[in-house]
Amino acid sequence: MWTIPISAFENSSTHPYGGSPDVFVADSDMTRENKKTDIETDFLQLARIALSGRTQDVQVILRRAAKRYHPFVPGFADALTTLLHESPSATLPLRRQAEVPLPVDLDSRLHLMRVEPEPALDHEPVFTPDLESALRQIVEERRNPDALIRAGLDPTRAALFVGPPGVGKTMAARWLARELKRPLLILDLAAVMSSLLGRTGSNLRHVLEYAKMIDCVLLLDELDAIAKRRDDRGEIGELKRLVTVLIQQIDDWPSSGILLAATNHPDLLDPAIWRRFDLHVEFPLPDQQAIARFIEGTIAPYFQSAHSWSGLLAVAFEGRSFSDVERVLTTARRSAALGSLPLEERFAGLLASKSIRKSTRIQLAAAIVDRGLLSQRKARELTGVSRDTIRNRTTPKGKSARRKNGRGPS
């Protein structure tokens, strides 16, 4: 993120553009407070015009700002100028997306998809080696298309993400869009099913045709909501026709686009749908190592002892999804922020879960004390392990010191 220090304008005695009253004046006699006010005025004016939808006026203001700030923060000004040069191009995703209206349901007039123009992640995702390799290959194929062309190959057009809820399928789609610098379009098929019925084929076709027109990453979430097996007698004819529409659209998907689909129930999918996807990517439940990395990445910005706690908490969360872990951590952080208990004690309480074997719980309680995270008394209160048991499992300070000095058994 670019920042513009007020001090950058203090030593300038020339005006970049003359005397236009709506242009920032970097005069040496101006006070720091006046300069701050002018910057605030610029951005308020920009926000007001942007919210009114006057795109051309926004571009005029940004061009002025690029010239105005260039003598003081050239990197910021150059980045702004580059963005302005890209904006008018009809071939760029953001411009083409702006020129083509989002598809809406003809009855409700509600948008049929969610658009993230510049996908962002709260923290870096944790992928297994096989999963990361598959995702990075998709990225490399788009970054080095010439190598595929020379080999007579096309890049992966459609990939199917398979796995239980909360293991990172949507986050992986967001990560791909971010790495490729493309907007992410998400169609939650289960959520729009009520509006699609009656106009199923046409609405779905409009969504997919829209996505074909721009360079984007399209995610069809909850694919099993519409792509169920056509031999299922319990399904109505309208839903069966959806499968045919979807097959036709995937077959016609351009090699320049990326179509992703996610499902929690792969056994429900029609076999013909399976065959249409170039790549099938498995998203397993995370192991303890992956959970520890996820915990540390999630709480490290807010908790100094994240590294010491992540491995311990990973034991308590074994067998659970990333979304489950994040929900419990967020609840603990909220309680700590409100002052009911320190965060360390909240975390220690998670280690008292009945799902954790007693022998493992004893080891965790001893590790808490050994690492100096909590006292023996607090560890006993929060984990339910007796102080005598904890004391017998922890390393005496004197013995530890002798070992470090080479005077005790190794």
Question: Which features does this protein show?
Answer:
single chain, 410 residues, alpha/beta, Rossmann fold, 3 domains, 6 strands, globular, disordered N terminus, disordered C terminus
Strand content: 5-15%
Helix segment tally: 19
Corresponding CATH architecture of the largest domain? 3-Layer(aba) Sandwich
Classified in CATH, the superfamily of the largest domain is P-loop containing nucleotide triphosphate hydrolases
Radius of gyration: 28 Å
Task: Provide mean pLDDT, rounded.
Answer: 78
**DSSP, total strands:** 6
Distance between the termini: 51 Å
Q: According to CATH, what is the class of the largest domain?
A: Alpha Beta
- Strand order in the largest sheet: 1-3-4-5-2-6
Structural class designation: alpha/beta
**CATH topology group of the largest domain:** Rossmann fold
Large-scale geometry: globular
Count the domains.
3
Elements, N to C (H/E): HHHHEHHEHEHHEHEHEHHHHHHHH
Q: Report the major sheet.
A: 6 strands, mixed
Helix content: 40-55%
Extract low-pLDDT stretches: 1-30, 87-95, 398-410
Characterization of the model:
This protein folds into three domains: 81 residues, no CATH class; 183 residues, Rossmann fold, CATH 3.40.50; 117 residues, no CATH class. Helix content is 51%, strand content 7%. It is built from 19 helices and six strands. A six-stranded mixed β-sheet has the order 1-3-4-5-2-6, with helices on both faces. Strand 4, helix 10 and strand 5 form a beta-alpha-beta unit. It is globular. The N terminus and C terminus are likely disordered.
